[in-house]
């Protein structure tokens, strides 16, 4: 369903452009006319589509799980209640296997991360032209509906995990214990500068790897769907179905990896210094 008036490169560029709101160079505020205009808006520009879709999917998650929790059946559970219970048992097992401390926040956090990222990743399975075409009908020039293909969102999630890791590291070990962990390991104390350099690099690499792993995999998947959409209609159906089936595994796997690493990082933050 590639646009008839767009070249292949223009079609790809259009589908990879966010709907960005910010301040134009002339001082006025509004929607960017393209990628170049969005870059000129600077740091405070907002990708409306990323923010909007992620918030809508977050509200959907809360609504569906609250519905299952507020009206449980006593005998044989309904299909949806049974599915939610399976997800909760899966998350509970993952936390018990990977988290060695005691913190009532970890399981709800893991559940939120896993389900929310799965929902955002699943938007990549919607045909690439459908929702953007509906947006154009109501005057929306650009619309990216997969929030996890936007590095702004993946880095936001990763930074939230990073700050929680720092917070619990200081809370559990104390400021001195946290500093000692960075300064006096893995080498003897007289190599403190070298220890600090290594540990700070390892600490900072955690959110970067979390963000880039999720973004890279989902961006690559979206790009393949866009390239398939440029092919003749018969070839599209031949390639898109098997790729979509394979991509379901990517959608779930990337959410699972992000959740598991979050649990592991927070578990390390709760380990007492020795």
The number of helical runs is 9
Rg, Å, rounded = 22 Å
Task: Please give the order of strands in the largest beta sheet.
Answer: 2-1-3
What structural class do you assign from the helix and strand content? mainly alpha
The overall average pLDDT, rounded, is: 89
Low-confidence blocks of residues = none
Distance between the termini: 61 Å
Please describe the biggest sheet, giving its number of strands, its sense, and whether it closes into a barrel.
3 strands, antiparallel
C-alpha geometry = globular
Number of strands: 3
Q: Helicity, in percent?
A: 55-70%
Strand content: under 5%
User: What is the succession of H and E elements?
Assistant: HEEHEHHHHHHH
GO molecular function, one term: proton-transporting ATP synthase activity, rotational mechanism
Keywords: ATP synthesis, Cell membrane, CF(0), Hydrogen ion transport, Hydrolase, Ion transport, Membrane, Transmembrane, Transmembrane helix, Transport
Protein name: ATP synthase subunit a
Membrane topology: Multi-pass membrane protein
